[in-house]
Amino acid sequence: MTALVWRELRRAWSSGGLVLPIAFFLLVAILFPFAVGPDGRLLARIGGGVIWAAALLAALLPVERLVAPDAESGVLDQLVARGFSDAGIAAAKMLGHWLGFGPALLAATCVAAALLHVPAGALATILLGLAIGTPGLAALGVATAALVAGLRGAGAIAGLVMLPFAVPLLIFGAGATGGEPGAIKLLAAISLLLVAGCPFVAGAAMGMGRG
Amino acid sequence: MSPALAFDDVTCLRGGRILFERLGFALGPGDAGLVRGPNGVGKSSLIRIAAGLLAPLEGRVTGDGARALLSESAALDAEQTLAAALGFWAGLDGGKACVAEALDAVGLAEIAEVPVRLLSTGQRRRAAFARVLASGAPVWLLDEPGNGLDTASLAMLEARIAAHRAAGGIVLVATHQPIALPDAQEIRL
Q1: pLDDT tens digit string along B102-151?
Q2: Is A73 on the interface with B (CB under 8 A)?
Q3: Model's pTM, two decimal places?
Q4: Domain ranges (residues) in chain A
Q5: Quick check: B15 contacting A, CB < 8 Å?
């Protein structure tokens, strides 16, 4: 299991698959001050929401390389032939994906927050929210990847599948940065639900793809 | 515990079509099964059922011992070196030490440090076979093992299979090509 997680992490970094989403995330954060103007107070007010929306979009980018290449190259077959369960493989992929993606995103958020004039206190809340929400986002990414693996135009369909399910994360994540009491708990609940449920969804999708 | 592999009245359904019905055979230590038949008759599906990748519609597959699968796809990470890509699987199978030996056996020892994406079709096939060798599994499931191999590699493959059987292993081969498997049980689909 550790070997599977480690392989995901190595694959993520070696293919440049994680630099792109992080660069994309920062780019969105850079674009906003240009779009709405250099008004510091306005930027600070919308900053939390912008960071969350950017994180969501950035999480969508690596979806295509999470499951489809392994299904195509026969790696999933070999793992199942060795007695790994589909859900176990999916869980390892989620953990590996998050380890590569989550901490890097948190680091990039500090840069984005500076660009958006987000005050230090709010930044702490955003970081806490992202730390809680990104595992859910990673789980959702792997489940989506398993569902769309092998489809034509998988990238576009992945967006349509994943973003609606990510809306609760966005609402409570952005709500927590706005100082809503209880939002962070609801965010944790949604994230936990995704982390607990997605391995089985992804596993079932991978099993059907093999059949 | 001696290895075994047995199909008990197995029926295979693929794409709404029955490929084979009530198929039964049993292989013991040192035995070989040779699955024969034209394209699309269900040879690969039979191997996939034996590997546990497909569930049979009816009947069951029983057996003892770990199974190593050689399918049409190499399942090696393209950006890694050959030795590292095989090492990942050997690590899962619990024997990283066997990789160099297996690579040597299939004649790929001198390109162990070449990235997998640069390998030719035949080299990829031999690398996939090296994974079977390195796995140490007593039951080998080989789907078209001779595809893309030159004459020398075919002879190597046959010799390795013979050695594996001599050591008490089981081989189930699905192929439409001629392959030397002395005293093999023929399973015609």
Answers
A1: 898 888 889 989 999 999 988 999 999 999 998 888 999 999 998 888 89
A2: yes
A3: 0.90
A4: 2-210
A5: no
Residues 29-48 of B with CB under 8 A from A: 48
What pLDDT does B2 receive? 84
Q: Which pairs from B98-105 meet CB under 8 Å and 24+ separation? A: B98/B133, B98/B134, B98/B136, B99/B130, B99/B134, B101/B133, B101/B134, B102/B130, B102/B131, B102/B133, B102/B134, B103/B127, B103/B130, B105/B130, B105/B133, B105/B156, B105/B160
Which chain A residue's Cα is nearest to B132? A78
Domain segments of chain B as ranges: 28-54+65-188
B75 interaction partners in chain A (CB closer than 8 Å): 73-75, 77-78
The fold of B28-54+65-188 is Rossmann fold (3.40.50)
Interface touch B88/A80, C-beta < 8 Å: no
For the question of an ipTM over 0.85, the answer is: yes
